[in-house]
Design brief:
Its cofactor is FAD. This protein has 621 residues and is of the alpha/beta class. It has a domain of 272 residues: Glucose Oxidase, domain 3, CATH 3.30.560.10. Helices cover 27% and strands 20% of the residues. The strands form 8 sheets. Strands 1, 2, 11, 12, 13, 14, 26 and 27 form an 8-stranded mixed β-sheet that branches. Helix 3 packs parallel to helix 16. About 1% of the residues have low confidence. Bound molecules: flavin-adenine dinucleotide and 2-acetamido-2-deoxy-beta-D-glucopyranose (10 copies). The site of one 2-acetamido-2-deoxy-beta-D-glucopyranose has 3 residues, from loops.
């Protein structure tokens, strides 16, 4: 008994002292400083920071078995698994640097797009969406660094529905059914059920992989009211990572004790000492070297890259794998002569292989105009207290972008049973701030109508998101200069039958019907009329369609620019990630998704890396 009391006291003392005042003060200064820098940061316009100072022949960087371009969601796990084999010599080339104390903080994600960890892309001016944004351009955040886009993302862990993968296989991709990929998802996952409200369907999970997953850990009257509104309509708490995905629940995310576990932290930092893995950071790959052998076959033999403003060349004995993500991968391929013949000729690039690279860009259109005011007030404290809580693993700074809950539903536009086509995210913890204007490139009048009317700690937002997007956009080259950005056109809400916008409208109606059931927190729609939609009756159907065009951007889940399938006229890689018609060259990242999934891309990208490692080990060991 005495021992027990002693133990409890010791623990209490330990808890109180585990984060010292000095540490809190230091971290507060650091974080406030970084946040201020980000608030004043500008998006880059190009990659000229890599441009070589002199026009000299490249320096020889040596020979490797595998060269992986890009240390993102897919490249990091792939490099980890391949370098488990001592016989494989692996070079992982990454444009950016390493994660830091700032990228660990979930709450500041919105700001991180104005740091060096974001490439800096915007869409070309849009015709049907992004209309409420300056110059009709939406921002397209893409991560740069060891961890890729997980350095600047929300870390939500949702794999997708079984039907997504069964469809993927049915396009002519053997080995891609749900039954095939489920064990691969499970291999990487470390699920931690830290919230009793979370339904975890255990046969679909693992607790001991490398990728940590936990739930938004608590609840509050407002979030409870949101759950209850959906329950009153006959839905239940659901595991969004099981086949019974439809329903709602607390947000599952790759977070450990309140800190982001980006894919660099999960898969690369622990293995930096492996002698057979070279991680070459701050290096931009400018070209894949593709040669013709005696038989006239195309073979990838290495890459040129630029580091410290000098050009290098590295050779691959076995394979070059492009994991640059859905925007950069098509750019690198096209710069190397692999892409649509006509487009490459326009840019005076020698065509080596005519393939539909960049022709099918898809994303999850998301509506950012549903802000609700309530009488529940988020606890307000001095910033230093938030930091103390964060360092102890809880509190508002541990919540990614304020997101706390999510739900999946099927609208009348989806005919497959139990197959969700609509996601609605729930967020609070300061649903509005002056910074939002910059974060989304909003026009003043858009910000004034949608965000300014709300009181930050007394509101929440919902983001209705289309899962099975019909609109198709593109990634093209602006020029043949590797230091220029590519042209990104989502062509949002452009599908013939306008199903994408109609699905968002279903989401808006659903969200508003829940608001009516949230009397416990006196919830009411908090937005004012958008001047751009002046001619329509406020909140009429026509009004909402106008608003959809104004503030629909997307969830930043670009996929499909090098889709997987058998026919080289329609697809870029085959079911084993091989680029059609080019030997020893593969693409593995979100660009190979043949369609959007009913989930968030990080978990599927990690699965792709695991799957390719299995394929390569089988072939080369
Ligand atoms: C704001 C935001 C929030 C998001 N939230 C979520 C979420 O909650 N859950 C989720 O699952 N997904 C989320 N996503 C999407 C998800 O993070 C990405 O879809 C996923 O990380 C993509 O993985 P990838 O392997 O395709 O590419 P990336 O992770 O983008 O990796 C590509 C890597 O290649 C590098 N690279 C590119 N070109 C070159 C070159 N020429 N030379 C050298 N290196 C190069 C890049 O710097 C980068 O590190 C979010 C994205 C954003 C922007
Ligand atoms: C990008 O270009 C704009 C307009 O030319 C310029 O105002 C801005 O400073 C540039 N940003 C950077 C980071 O170079
Ligand atoms: C990161 O934060 C931790 C926790 O406060 C601190 O111990 C560490 O020194 C910080 N690292 C750097 C590089 O500042
Ligand atoms: C769980 O993860 C561990 C570690 O990766 C792995 O050995 C095990 O096979 C996984 N279990 C399942 C059921 O996938
Ligand atoms: C990343 O690159 C920089 C040089 O650009 C180098 O100083 C640093 O050591 C590299 N980091 C690691 C962990 O290799
Ligand atoms: C890329 O490397 C090849 C092979 O060494 C070399 O011939 C070519 O000049 C390099 N390109 C650039 C732009 O340095
Ligand atoms: C970068 O290049 C400069 C010369 O241009 C050289 O002085 C410096 O040592 C190089 N730095 C690294 C980390 O290679
Ligand atoms: C939320 O907004 C209030 C101001 O309304 C501010 O005092 C508080 O610090 C903010 N919370 C966070 C976590 O930034
Ligand atoms: C509910 O909110 C409305 C306006 O949003 C306000 O007029 C009303 O007084 C509130 N009622 C309660 C009980 O808080
Ligand atoms: C919020 O409003 C509801 C009525 O809609 C009321 O019952 C509740 O007491 C109010 N809560 C607070 C904290 O004011
Ligand atoms: C909401 C919105 O802007 N929808 C438009 C999507 O694009 C189609 C045609 O491409 C238009 O008819 C819709 O008005």
């Amino acid at each position: 008994m005495t021992m027990l009391i002693f133990f409890i006291i010791l623990n209490a003392i330990y808890f109180i002292h585990c984060v010292s005042d000095e540490e809190v003060a230091q971290f507060t200064m650091y974080l406030e400083d970084e946040m201020e820098k980000a608030q004043n940061g500008e998006l880059r316009n190009d990659s000229s920071q890599f441009k070589p100072l002199k026009d000299e022949p490249p320096i020889d960087f040596g020979c490797y078995d595998f060269i992986i371009i890009g240390a993102g969601s897919t490249g990091t796990i792939l490099a980890n698994r391949l370098s488990e084999e001592e016989d494989f010599k692996v070079l992982l080339i990454e444009a950016g640097g390493y994660p830091n104390n700032y990228t660990d903080v979930p709450f500041v994600i919105g700001l991180s797009r104005f740091t060096k960890f974001n490439w800096g892309y915007k869409t070309v001016p849009q015709k049907h969406s992004c209309l409420g944004m300056i110059n009709q351009q939406c921002i397209v955040p893409r991560g740069q660094g060891v961890g890729g886009t997980t350095l600047i993302n929300d870390q939500i862990y949702v794999r997708g529905h079984p039907h997504d993968f069964d469809r993927w296989e049915s396009l002519g991709n053997p080995g891609w059914s749900y039954e095939d990929v489920l064990p691969i998802f499970k291999k990487t996952e470390a699920m931690h059920q830290n919230n009793p409200q979370a339904v975890v369907d255990w046969p679909y999970h693992n607790t001991s992989g490398l990728l940590y997953v936990e739930y938004y850990p608590t609840t509050d009257p407002q979030l409870n009211a949101w759950y209850e509104a959906q329950a009153s309509m006959g839905y239940n708490f659901a595991d969004s990572n099981s086949p019974e995905q439809i329903g709602f629940g607390p947000l599952p995310a790759c977070i450990r004790n309140g800190k982001k576990v980006d894919d660099g932290t999960a898969f690369i930092l622990p293995i930096l000492s492996r002698g057979n893995l070279k991680v070459q950071n701050n290096s931009l790959v400018t070209k894949i070297l593709i040669e013709k052998d005696m038989k006239g076959q195309l073979i990838a033999t290495g890459v040129n890259f630029s580091y410290n403003r000098t050009t290098y060349v590295a050779r691959a004995n076995k394979e070059v794998i492009v994991s640059g993500g859905s925007i950069n991968t098509p750019q690198i391929l096209m710069l190397s002569g692999v892409g649509p013949k006509k487009h490459l000729r326009e840019k005076t690039i020698q065509v080596l292989k005519d393939l539909p690279v960049g022709k099918t860009l898809r994303d999850h259109p998301a509506f950012y105009g549903l802000l609700i005011s309530s009488n529940y007030t988020e606890p307000i404290q001095p910033f230093e207290e938030y930091v103390r809580e964060y360092l102890n693993g809880y509190g508002p700074l541990t919540v990614p972008g304020g997101l706390k809950g999510l739900s999946f539903y099927k609208t009348k536009f989806e005919s497959v049973e139990n197959y969700p086509d609509l996601e609605i995210l729930y967020g609070s913890g300061n649903c509005t701030s002056a910074f939002i204007k910059k974060e989304y490139n909003l026009k003043d009048e858009t910000y004034e109508a949608i965000y300014a009317p709300l009181d930050p700690p007394r509101c929440f937002f919902m983001v209705p998101t289309v899962l099975h997007t019909k609109s198709v956009g593109s990634v093209k080259l602006k020029t043949n200069d590797p230091y220029d950005f590519p042209l990104i056109d989502f062509n949002n809400l452009s599908d013939k039958d306008n199903i994408d916008a109609k699905t968002i409208y279903e989401g808006i109606k659903m969200g508003l019907s829940w608001v009516q059931h949230m009397q416990a927190v006196n919830a009411t729609l908090g937005v004012k009329k958008l001047p751009a939609c002046e001619q329509y009756e406020f909140l009429s159907e026509q009004y909402w369609y106008c608003a959809i065009g104004q503030v629909t951007s997307n969830l930043y889940h670009p996929v499909g620019t090098c889709p997987m399938g058998p026919d080289p006229k329609k697809y870029v890689v085959n079911h084993e990630f091989k680029v059609h018609g080019v030997h020893r060259l593969r693409v593995a990242d979100a660009s190979v998704f043949p369609h959007t999934l009913s989930g968030h891309p990080n978990a599927p990208c990690v699965m792709l890396g695991e799957k390719l490692a299995i394929i390569l080990k089988k072939q080369y060991l």
